[in-house]
Design a protein that fits this description.
This protein has 2 domains: about 90 residues, Leucine Dehydrogenase, chain A, domain 1 (Rossmann fold), CATH 3.40.50.10860; about 130 residues, NAD(P)-binding Rossmann-like Domain (Rossmann fold), CATH 3.40.50. It is about 40% helix and about 15% strand. It is built from 10 helices and 11 strands.
């Protein structure tokens, strides 16, 4: 069984970005800049923002962090986004999810212009992705493909089952896998799928992104399947010094002997998402400079 660690893959991506940013600075006399907006004080979101800031510092991307109170109005957030859209020094804009209930995630995604949409959630980028055109792609699905490539796992002609149909992972993941450079046969399962096990046990590659800790057991996968666990949930753990632990959607201990390769949680897909965000920010900066 191969343990698909994201840490070495993420480092390789960030190291490549670091070198390219040196060239970018020489050529354009500036550094790429990422603006991150956090609404509220969600501990997980704060941790993610801290991780992104650390990655920016490592590769050489300038970061502009904007912290807003939990009761910030939708109008105020949209005004800030518009200001960032018009700021020529800002190359990428990211609004940390989840958002408080008074703010529409859809309106926020629509408000960020496609050229600076480093999360790949603007409808223009989503449409380009589906059509196989060049675009800024969602970080987690893109990171999964880069991980598979790094470990020499091909999707060509493979049966891939995606469990979860979110706009963040499931839908864009399927769009990427059916393109001609991947040539996978894709099945998407969700909460209304009947006989889930019937689909998962036929898959050569399983991508699980549902947010239900340890729900996926060994009887739900094919022998020697590749398992990509995207879920991460904090659960109480009395055996841990911290009193909690991070769990994926897959019961790692239960399935590890049956699969041929599997991502751990943590240190699996998580590092990939942040590394690809760095790559997307650099790409956004290059695209903006080249279009001038």
């Amino acid at each position: 069984m191969i343990l698909l660690l994201g840490t070495p893959v993420a480092k390789a991506i960030k190291d490549e970005c670091k070198l390219k940013i040196i060239d970018f600075q020489v050529k354009y006399n500036r550094l790429p800049q990422l603006a991150v907006i956090l609404v509220g004080d969600n501990p997980s979101s704060q941790s993610y923002v801290k991780g992104k800031r650390k990655a920016c510092d490592y590769v050489g991307i300038k970061h502009k962090d904007i912290f807003l109170k939990e009761d910030t109005s939708e109008k105020k957030l949209l005004t800030i986004i518009e200001e960032l859209n018009l700021d020529d020094k800002v190359d990428g804009i990211l609004v940390q999810l989840p958002l408080p209930p008074q703010i529409s995630e859809t309106k926020v995604n629509d408000a960020i212009i496609p050229e600076k949409d480093v999360d790949g959630f603007n409808p223009v980028n989503v449409g380009s992705l589906l059509l196989g055109r060049k675009s800024l792609s969602p970080c987690t699905p893109k990171g999964i493909l880069k991980m598979l490539d790094y470990y020499g796992i091909t999707t060509e002609g493979k049966n891939v089952c995606i469990v979860g149909r979110s706009n963040l992972v499931g839908k864009p993941m399927a769009s990427m896998l059916i393109q001609k450079d991947r040539n996978a046969t894709v099945t998407i399962c969700h909460t209304h799928t009947r006989n889930l096990i019937e689909f998962t046990t036929k898959a050569d590659i399983l991508i699980i992104a549902v947010g239900k800790p340890s729900m996926f057991k060994k009887e739900m996968l094919k022998q020697n399947a590749v398992v990509i666990d995207v879920g991460i949930t904090m659960v109480n753990d009395s055996s841990s010094i911290k009193g909690y632990a991070w769990k994926g959607d897959v019961d790692f201990e239960d399935v590890k002997e049956k699969c041929s390769a599997i991502t751990p949680v943590p240190k699996g897909i998580g590092p990939m998402t942040i590394a690809v965000l760095m790559e997307n920010t650099l790409d956004a900066a290059l695209n903006r400079e080249e279009s001038k």
